[in-house]
Amino acid sequence: MKNFKRVLAILLCLVMVFSMVACGEKGEGGEAKDDTVYHIATGALGAYNYTLYAGISDKINKAYSNKYEISLDCASGSTEMGRMCALGDAQFGTCTMDDLWNCFNGTAEYDGCPSGEIAFLYNTGGTGPTCHLVTPKNSAINSVYDLVGKKIGIPAGYYQKYFKYMMQVLGINDDQYTINTLAINDIVNGIKDETIDAGFYSAPHPLNNFVDLASTTGCKFVDFGREVVDKVLAAYPFMHEVVMPAGTYEGQTADITSFTAYTCWICRKDVPEEVVYEWLKVILADDAHLEEIHPNAKNIKRDTALEGRIIPLHAGALKYYKEYGLIDKDELADLKPEK
User: Fold this and answer.
1) In angstroms, rounded to a whole number, what is the distance separating the alpha carbons of residues 78 and 178?
2) Is 255 within 8 Å of 245 (Cβ atoms)?
3) What are the beta bridge partners of residue 153?
4) Residue 78 above 70 pLDDT?
């Protein structure tokens, strides 16, 4: 009898196994399980991008009954996230528009990476990381041209890249000023102590570090000016104008014309159409549910998702935006990488 029960148990197990093979593994709500692990390249653990896409991953799996297995992979910033996508180490990631262009073309920081491997999903909205130029409150620096011969505190990475974009289009060479590579807290202290002449930093405004500086020690925010911004935009089409309204910071009595690059979400072009379509259905459902994850996420909106796009859409994204009447066809579909 015991042997009969053991044989019966084995037969039942085999029936279950064959049923799963025949029907496909299911999620809790009956969705067919996708066996691929989808890697999202994000920022550091606990930082904005990590927090946002951890929350988004949770919402995707709730919407599709754990159909998708998603891994969040930390990266040092936009350039590394783009590189991970280009090389196939991640399927999704966040890029600034300048990194996006170089990543698509396999140029600059992406030299040696395969070109044409990534596709556009959406603009992350808002102003983007606004470029700030801040000085001690009694400084004689009143324009970008006054930075010649001066010591400027700027963090490493895209901050220095944006600064040099600006100086190069104005014909100001690297040897005509000195960059001190400083973190934001050191820039603030340098302005307070006047150990640097100016600080250059790019972040959504108002930035808490500068709010505190302006309301305590005091400082001056220098207007980049229409002429400078127009030259930057003409040379770098992935940049756009930003205006910081008067009163953004204490003591700032006039609007400041500035510039920056948008950030966007990208994916590899070989991600299945259904995956991208289903994920966008969740992410862009409304901005309120994104704001629940992080206040800045309220800027991710369906109606502005295609602003500033400079590379082709993923097929799943095209299907999604067509469904909502935001686009008829992808006018960049035939765009080829430069190399």
Assistant:
1) 25
2) yes
3) 180, 199
4) yes
Cis omega (within 30 of 0) on the bond before 245? no
Determine the number of helices (DSSP H) and then strands (DSSP E) in the chain. Answer: 11, 12
Mean pLDDT along residues 227-243: 93
Tokens read off for 280: 């966008």
The answer to whether residue 1 scores a pLDDT higher than 50 is: no
What does the pLDDT look like over 118-174, one tens digit per residue?
A: 999 999 988 878 999 999 999 999 999 999 999 999 988 788 999 999 999 999 999
In angstroms, the CA 265 to CA 56 distance is: 13
Mean pLDDT of 36-48: 87
Q: Which phi and psi angles does 328 have, rounded to 5°?
A: -95, -40
Phi then psi for residue 116, to 5 deg, are 70, 20
Q: How far are the Cα atoms of 45, 73, 270, 297, 318 from residue 54, in angstroms, in the given order?
A: 10, 10, 23, 12, 25
Please give the torsion angle defined by the CA atoms of residues 54, 58, 64 and 67, in that order, rounded to the nearest 10 degrees.
60
Q: How confident is the model at residue 116 (pLDDT cuts 50, 70, 90)?
A: very high
pTM of the model: 0.70
Q: What is the band of 16 on the pLDDT scale with cuts at 50, 70, 90?
A: very low
The H or E element that residue 275 is part of is helix 273-283
Of 316, 305, 263, residue with least CA distance to 129: 263
d(CA 88, CA 93): 11
45-47-49-55 Cα dihedral, nearest 10 degrees: 70
Cβ atoms of 178 and 151 closer than 8 Å: yes
DSSP codes of every residue in 129-167: S-EEEEE-TT-S--SGGGGTT-EEEE-TTHHHHHHHHHH
